[in-house]
Every structure is written in structure tokens, then in C-alpha cells.
Amino acid sequence: MKFRNLILCGAMALTMTACSTKQSALNQLEDFSYELRDNSRNYDVDDWERAGKKFVKIRENISKHEFDYTAAEKSKIGRLEANCVKYMAKGAKDGVFDKLKNIGSEIKGVIQGIMDAIDPKTLETEDL
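The structure assignment produced for this chain is given below.
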């Protein structure tokens, strides 16, 4: 009987840990979005490099739980990611990302995709 209760408690602890990990990844993204909103206009190259790496790490954490999120949580993740990318695109527009040496290729791809999407020349050729 004691062994059964121990297993039950262990299973409950794992379930609670999984939920908090899923939620903590979402909280990290939300906190990062606020951090960029409040501080990104003062970022230098080193700050943007750290921010890019942090964004990639947060995305990796979220993707580990992608099938666990509800539709509402996925919608919130999308909005928060869009906010983060918006601030990063502003940094790219200001030429900061051109100076970065060691930023991950994933974040470079995100920024390039955004820049292509907002580039009027790209929009004109896509309509043809």
C-alpha cells in the first residue's frame, strides 16, 4: 500500500512539474516581451546578441511543449512572439543586427523573414 501511494505521489509530482514547466516557458516569453518593450531602444550590439540568444532559448523551451498548449495559449504565444520580433526588427532596421557576430542562425532567419515581409520591393514582386 505504501509503495502504491509513493508511485501515485510521484506521478502527481511529475504532472505538476510538467505543467509548471509549460507555464514557465510561456511566462519567460511574456517577461522577455516586456523586457524588449521597456529596454530595447537602449540596446547596444552586446545587448541584442544576448536578446537574440535568449529568444532562441525561450522558443526551444516553448517548442518542447507545443502539443500541450491550448488554443488560447498558442494564440497568446503568437502575439508575444510577434511583439518580440517587432522589437527585434526595429533593431535590425537600425542596423544593429548587421554588426552581430555570433547570433544564432535561427534568429537571423526570423529577422530576415520579417525584413523581407516589410520590404516594399519584395511586396511588389510577390504581387506579380
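Interim note for the steering committee: The mean pLDDT is 74. The CA atoms of residues 39 and 47 lie 10 Å apart.
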